[in-house]
Amino acid sequence: MNPNDALEAASFIDASRLLQSIETLARFGARDDGGVDRPALSSVDIDARRFLVEHALALGCTVHTDACANLFFRRPGLEDLPPVMTGSHVDTQPTGGKLDGCYGVLAGLECLAALNDAGIRTRRPLEVVVWTNEEGTRFQPGAMGSSAFVDPALMERYGQTKDADGISLDRALVAHREAFPSLEERVTDKAAHAFIELHIEQGPLLELADVPLGVVKGIQGVRWYAVRCKGVAAHAGTTPMHARHDAMTLAVCIRAEISAFAHQLGGDDTRVTFGRWTVLPNSINTIASDVTFTIDFRHPNPAVLHAFDRQLAACLAHHAVTSEALFIHPPVVFAPSVVQRVADACHALGTHSLNITSGAFHDAMYLARHCPSAMLFVPSRGGISHNPQEATDDDHLVLGTRALAHCLVHLCNEAP
Ligand code: HGY
Ligand code: MN
Ligand code: MN
Fold it and tell me: Average model confidence (pLDDT) for the chain?
């Protein structure tokens, strides 16, 4: 390896090509308010994937897929060694932005283009990956593609999960295979050499510190639950208040108790959200008979996460209501060797960086079980994400991509 290859690759990152690719991808599922609504494996997601496959083929990559419709864009290396992987997801929240996940995929493709332009060959193959259903809004849990890549046995359960319209993941995967009939399965029994995910921070820390790059040391733990409260449907006008069994009254009371002990257990690091409510019969003048709400609880401390689980179980037992655990993941600590590559890249590019623990979960939380992994963040303007207003300064997007290129070249030239 030429010792300048990493900086050379970083210098060949083409700002306008990168920024244009972000705007082009954002057209698939574009919302009128500038955001993106691209549910996993929906028709707009399949169209977006077609654009990315064509982009990767034009860069000279081979393209493979797997049982969970992950896409693998591979640039060959000089030696047949386990690859270095980078990438993220392109499915979005219903009121998502242009960058969450998409930036990491497009920056990876821009790194491939820069390596081509610079005429740089690496020892190891380099793969840019599109992980399926990271957001977990269409099918729960989140990060399905990356978790199934690491533990293929999960597909047995995942395949039967259904979206709000009753369409199973298995059925959505059939549509994907029909859209890409010639894509071959990625077959390997070897683990990748390393994984790096470039992502927007989706929070305020880098902007508050006025630092353009985040060296991500790990990811906090997450709990998703669905809580179902039952009542008795009755007339809103005739039923005396004392005679009601209002599922919404019960749900709101339980929500308040959960919020109180979540904050008591977790202190300032508590993140608790009750984001999805399903009310039946959902009629202005009928008392609710059935209310299901979701809990998204996050915390960096495993003991707090376990205490929350216990206290939630006690609370729900007291109220005799049922719940379903949709997603449980412990905090993740990334591999110091790969974290160091990220820190070295920031230093080599002459920029300050901030060590940070990710508040959002990412596919890297599963890849960390597969191979040494780490993440690199760029700031989110106003700390906003999962919102059409999600944005990052262009120069930060470009700098993050240059730092990614620097990391990837070093990792791709590491000896076995
Ligand atoms: O919810 C998350 O942390 C991720 O953005 N899907
Ligand atoms: Mn994301
Ligand atoms: Mn997200």
Answer: 97
